[in-house]
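So, could you explain this one?
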Amino acid sequence: MIAGLDDGSGIPETDRDTVFDSGYPTAAEGTGVGLTTVQHIVDARGWSVTVIESEAGGTRFEITGVECPSRTPAQN
């Protein structure tokens, strides 16, 4: 899982189902396409993204289904 969070005002629980819709601005000067773009990228890779309240009271975005290949140190 990958998570990003903030301690801002958060996204109301009633809006969490629509926050990824095109045209939903999370800022007064926003265009409402940022989270839609995130949703498209996540969908294209077969992952899932959810939005919940963060421990700090803001918003937490969780992306699940991400597989990271194991890395080995470079051979010299």
Observations:
- The chain has a mean pLDDT of 82.
